[in-house]
From TrEMBL:
Keywords recorded for this protein, A-Z: Developmental protein, Nucleus
UniProt cross-references to InterPro entries, sorted A to Z: Donson (IPR024861)
GO cellular component: nucleus
Alphabetical GO biological process terms: nuclear DNA replication
Compositionally biased intervals (Acidic residues): 302-312, 320-329
Family classification: Belongs to the DONSON family.
Principal location class: nucleus
Protein name, per record: Protein downstream neighbor of son-like
Domain of life: Eukaryota
Organism of provenance: Acipenser ruthenus (Sterlet sturgeon)
Subcellular locations according to the entry: Nucleus
Record keyword Ion transport present: no
Length: 535
């Protein structure tokens, strides 16, 4: 192929090659050749491409000497030399952007996400230098604003965010949270699956029962303090993280519920049975939702527990005594048909074993999430304080009390801040390279922190950024709707929770009913001050 002048075997720039071919063909046609002699010319080796072209091709066409030829490279999209094709994938009409979610026009908010996040990754074409190297005064001001629950109102757009002291103070304020216990040498969130991360760390209390009792005593005081703040509506919500499950306590009025609620996930049959024995009434909301979708009741409950409705049409509370009654009289219909002697009935032990197997299959699954409401949450408080299973008996977490996380200060809590780190990378695009800026937030990111950060970025990044959200998976089901029939949000909820310390816009978002179900936000984008998301 050395005789082909200008031939490029890589075919990286076919448009340039075809331009030269067309130019040569026109010059030869101008000399009176009458028709293109490309098939006999030294450069005619390219005719082999045309010869094996299967039928007519769509695309641009060229004329040489009156003969109509089609460009075999018309559908190739790497023609950088064509000005009309110098478009980025984001705005090219040939490359459609996959929609994250079908949204109504003018969506200026995103749904509340009650799951815990372990990491947020914000990206933008504008730098995040305003989040770097806060001055001592700005850091102190941000901590003071958090303690005093000060509300920062930022403009719609900030032209010079790095020089905005108000923005930097508000950023510091949005990173603060409260935790108990707090040990500098141990990362106490997440607790589920943390055995490998905590292995080998110094745990002097593991073999000291007196020290373990002291830790649990202090933890009980902090837990009780948090619940009292919640009941007084001075703390909107908090999380209790054990090595086996996580509990979300929410104040009355949040997520559309009239009373205090507690969601537990994941649960096991043993935990549910222990709660029943303590007299804690609870429901399995995901199973009840499945039953509402199948009103005929033909689909059995995955938990093996019979679900019924009370006189008001609301789902009845789980009661183990009802199961025992059904075991005794579940086959009375055989006697009514007169075939009780012809059909062998399964014995009581077989029935219980089958039911236990169905209940165990539910363990550790999203459908095992338990909802406790009203005064039963106080019984749950006492149950968790006295329940030995909330503390590991062996392993790296042996003797370590559960982690309490809250947006407001409480007795025995330690002020902590989320970790923030900004960076800049070069991304290759069709026209070369462009800067891609990122801001990474790590730590236990609670719902109010996520919403506060998006409020700041909306102003600082001029309404354009993307967010990758990394969810602590056992808490994704906390987006389950806790409401039952007949419940509605009171008009005075915002006023009652006005002293809980949250930003008014954040509080207004958390008061709305949960809509994500057992899923959580995975991607959140803002473009021209409009949100889109993927869950």
């Amino acid at each position: 192929m050395s005789e082909l002048a200008g031939y490029s075997p890589s075919f990286k720039r076919p448009a340039e090659i075809m331009r030269l071919r067309r130019k040569r063909a026109r010059s030869e046609a101008g000399l009176g050749s009458g028709r293109s002699n490309s098939e006999s010319s030294p450069g005619g080796g390219l005719s082999g491409v045309r010869r094996f072209s299967p039928g007519p091709l769509r695309g641009s066409e060229s004329r040489a000497g009156g003969v109509k030829r089609r460009n075999p490279f018309a559908n190739i999209e790497n023609t950088y030399s064509s000005p009309r094709k110098r478009t980025t994938p984001e705005c090219s009409p040939r490359v459609p952007i996959p929609a994250l979610q079908e949204l109504p026009s003018g969506c200026t908010e995103f749904p509340a996400d009650w799951s815990l996040k372990t990491r947020l990754l914000f990206t933008s074409q504008l730098p995040f230098t305003w989040a770097e190297h806060l001055k001592a005064q700005e850091e102190a001001q941000g901590l003071s604003q958090h303690c005093r629950a000060a509300v920062s109102t930022l403009p719609h757009s900030i032209p010079e965010p790095r020089s905005s002291s108000e923005l930097r103070c508000a950023f510091q304020q949005s990173l603060v949270y409260w935790q108990h216990p707090a040990l500098p040498w141990l990362q106490l969130f997440p607790r589920i699956g943390a055995e490998r991360r905590l292995a080998g760390k110094c745990a002097t209390w593991a073999q000291d029962e007196a020290l373990q009792q002291l830790l649990m005593s202090e933890w009980s005081v902090s837990f009780t303090s948090l619940y009292n703040l919640l009941r007084s509506r001075l703390c909107p919500y908090f999380y209790l993280c054990t090595y086996q499950f996580t509990v979300l306590f929410r104040a009355a009025g949040l997520a559309g519920s009239e009373g205090i609620t507690a969601l537990i996930s994941p649960t096991t049959r043993g935990l549910r049975e222990a709660m029943k024995m303590e007299g804690i009434e609870f429901t399995l909301p995901l199973l009840e939702e499945r039953k509402r979708r199948n009103p005929g009741g033909s689909e059995p409950s995955p938990d093996g527990e019979q679900e019924s409705e009370d006189g008001d049409g609301n789902p009845a509370q789980v009661n183990s005594d009802e199961d025992d009654d059904e075991d005794d009289g579940g086959f009375s219909w055989l006697e009514e048909m007169g075939v009780q002697d012809k059909i062998k009935k399964p014995d009581t032990i077989s029935i219980k074993l089958c039911k236990e197997h169905s209940e165990v299959r539910l363990d550790h699954k999203p459908e095992s999430v338990v909802l406790v409401k009203g005064t039963n949450t106080f019984t749950l408080l006492n149950f968790l304080i006295n329940c030995k299973s909330v503390v590991a008996a062996a392993g790296a977490q042996a003797g370590l009390p559960p982690t309490l996380l809250a947006p407001a200060a409480f007795r025995g809590a330690t002020m902590q801040t989320l970790k923030a780190r900004s960076s800049n990378v070069k991304m290759q695009v069709q026209t070369g390279y462009r800067d891609q800026f990122s801001l990474e937030i790590t730590g236990p990111v609670m719902p109010h922190s996520l919403h506060n950060l998006t409020l700041l970025l909306k102003s600082a990044q001029q309404g354009a950024f993307s967010t990758g959200l990394y969810t602590h998976e056992p808490t994704a089901v906390f987006n389950t709707d806790p409401r039952t029939q007949g419940e509605c949000t009171k008009e005075s909820v915002l006023q009652d929770l006005g002293g809980c310390g949250l930003h008014p816009e954040t509080l207004q978002k958390l008061v709305e009913p949960a809509v994500l179900g057992k899923s959580a936000l995975r991607q959140l984008d803002m473009n021209e001050y409009k949100y889109s998301w993927k869950s």
